[in-house]
Amino acid sequence: MFSSYGGKDLDRLGIGVEFSDKTNLKRGSRGKHGDLHCAGDIWFIPYETTGSSKKKAHVYEYPLELVQRCVELSSASVGIFDPFMGSGQTAIAGKAAGLDVYGSEINPLTYKELLERIK
């Protein structure tokens, strides 16, 4: 179950979802990849809201799980580059996946904060 973009294969089962109804494994070709099926085009990703007790590291911060899924889906094996590092979510996900992480950030204060987060 691979799609291609720019000559590189996407591992759609890398972020596969288990069948909740195991009888689906025996219907047609659904179980040909084991107990996983494609997560599809819409992902439910819980998003921690910010309140008075929670402070975002960056004004445009997005859920870490979103980046983790994209890294897994890309099948990146060497490293990743984030041209707008912001809070460092991409760097955190890349390091967790064992990849080299490269990036740039124009705001010196944000850059200093992201270095603290990814230590």
In the predicted model, the low-confidence regions spanning at least 5 consecutive residues are 1-5
Side by side, the strands of the main sheet go: 1-2
What shape does the CA trace take?
elongated
CATH homologous superfamily title of the largest domain: Vaccinia Virus protein VP39
Short characterization:
By secondary structure, this protein is an alpha+beta fold. 24% of the residues lie in helices and 17% in strands. It has 3 helices and 6 strands.
Structural write-up:
The chain has helices spanning 64-74, 89-96, 108-117, and strands spanning 2-5, 8-11, 17-18, 36-37, 79-82, 100-103. The chain has 119 residues and is α+β, with helices and mostly antiparallel strands. It has two domains: 1-42, no CATH class; 48-119, Vaccinia Virus protein VP39 (Rossmann fold, 3-Layer(aba) Sandwich). Strand 1 (2-5) and strand 2 (8-11) form a beta hairpin. Helix 1 (64-74) packs across helix 2 (89-96).
